[in-house]
Each structure stands twice: as C-alpha cells, then as structure tokens.
C-alpha cells in the first residue's frame, strides 16, 4: 500500500473511532448495528482494512452524520 493511501486510511479510521467513542459504544456494539464483526470494525479503525462505500454509508447513517464528514 502506498504511503498516501495509508495516511488516508489512518485518518478515516480515526474519524470512525472518534464518532464511535462520542457515543460511548464498543466495537462489538457498532459492528452489530451495521452488520459487520467487531474484528472488522477494529481493522477499519486501525487502517488495516480499506472498507467499502456501503459500510461507510451504514456508519454515517448510524452516527447521524453526512458521509463526507469522514473525509474532512
């Protein structure tokens, strides 16, 4: 993976973690809400997995934010 891609994934993962922590919910609870495993949530937050736009959409809906917020 290229450096720029890794930086992007780290920022995205941090944004997702920040939103999850605002709600004070676990990775497991978040995964259950959007239909993925807690392990996948962790991999996304740690920038180990490039997630799909569908998962980002589900996250935005759950967090009640606009999807573009992940990219600011």
UniProtKB/TrEMBL annotation:
Top-level taxon in the UniProt lineage: Bacteria
Q: Which UniProt keywords apply?
A: DNA-binding
| Gene Ontology molecular function, alphabetical | DNA binding
SMART domains, per the entry? HTH_XRE
Q: Where is the HTH cro/C1-type domain?
A: 16-70
Cite the CDD domains for this sequence: HTH_XRE
Against PROSITE patterns, the record matches this protein to: HTH_CROC1
Q: Pfam families, alphabetically?
A: HTH_3
Q: Does the keyword DNA-binding apply?
A: yes
Signal sequence span per UniProt?
A: none
What protein does this entry describe? Answer: DNA-binding transcriptional regulator, XRE-family HTH domain
């Amino acid at each position: 993976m290229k450096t720029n891609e890794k930086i992007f994934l780290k920022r995205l993962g941090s944004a997702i973690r920040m939103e999850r922590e605002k709600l004070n919910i676990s990775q497991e609870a978040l995964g259950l809400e959007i239909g993925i495993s807690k392990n996948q949530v962790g991999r996304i937050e740690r920038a180990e997995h490039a997630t799909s736009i569908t998962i980002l959409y589900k996250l935005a809906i759950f967090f009640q934010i606009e999807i573009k917020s992940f990219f600011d």
